[in-house]
Amino acid sequence: MKLMNILLLGGALFFGTALTSCSSDKDYDVDSYPYTRAYFAKARTTTDGMIVSTPVGIVTSLTNQIIIKSTVAATSDTRITLGFDNSLVDSYNKSKGTTYLPMPEGALELSSTTATIKRGEMASVDTISVTVNKAEAAHLNDANGYLAPIVIKSADGGMQPSSDAAVVYVCLRYSESSINDGATALPGSAYNLSLAQDEWKLVSSKNFDESTFTNLFASNSWSRYFAFKEKAETAQCVIDLGKTQNITGFLASSGLMKGANVEISTDNASWTTLGYTADHKTFSIQEGWSYAEWYVLYAAMQARYVKISIDLDQDSDYWQYLSYSWGKRYCSLSGFNIAVQ
Question: Which uninterrupted H or E stretch holds 294?
Fold first, then answer.
């Protein structure tokens, strides 16, 4: 019993001594690093941007703001230095299963390569913006896309970059499109359907009831439809506009449409793709009690022929109405028009 008491007393004295020793050591950060670390507020995240090749040139989109923080309040005004590090692209691709190319030098620009954390603060007073250099971006056309790792390179005042939270990523994806997803107006005007009824002709069709083609020109939007012939995965038609037009947009709608690939031609032989509707946004224009959803082009394009290739939704309940004359509108291209200048 005496031996047990001696052991217990010795253990208590040792534990107390250990606590006293730790409290007198240099202050440690929350995870036992003996220095203050600088890190990104949204560390290890990826911001997506776009490079879109259009008939009027390159259009870019990227919104990225960077804020730097510290694990404890800065003891003096501390400058943080940022930069790009393409050596991290390979490891990113391996971990994410992607195939990005390293971002070419100059394609992205930082509003500043330094930020300051003021004394007593834990976040930078500067917000760093990342923008696309359009002149350099005009040369980026690889479908794999491009990746730029942005890192904290150094910090003053005894602060050091975090070992695992000092990198953010920006990627730029490349695509080609004639459709302006950010349109705020429809240039030109919708074609007069009463004129189109006399001028437009159906050149060919697959899985359309051609006897209903003229219904597309009805004065009442509810009565406009070009009915599908049967339940199928696709439907296609080619329309002759009667003369070459300067097209600035188009309308193509259907309750059964998953998406439609719209192409234009001046000779019914060589075709230019405007885009796949499911991949794009529309500009809404009110027509009576409803809205017409227009796909707006970046620039006017010449066309006499329009080809519409539609992917149909096989699971839609609308198919049950196909056998009824009153139900054909539900199983149809329920609206098509062009805007012209």
Answer: strand 290-312
User: Which residues fall within 8 angstroms of residue 276, CB to CB, at 6 or more apart?
Assistant: 259, 260, 261, 262
DSSP annotation of 104 reads: P
Yes or no: say if 248 and 186 are a contact pair by the CB < 8 Å rule: yes
Radius of gyration of the chain (CA): 31
In the chain (341 residues long), the average pLDDT of successive 10-residue segments reads 38 37 38 78 96 88 94 94 98 97 97 96 94 94 96 93 95 93 94 97 98 94 94 98 97 96 97 94 88 94 97 96 93 96 93
Is 82 in contact with 151 (CB distance < 8 Å)? yes
Boundary (domain end) residue, out of 144, 176, 208: 176
The tokens describing 150, both together, are 């942005």
Note the pTM of the prediction, 2 decimals: 0.70
Check whether residue 170 and residue 60 sit in a common domain.
Answer: yes
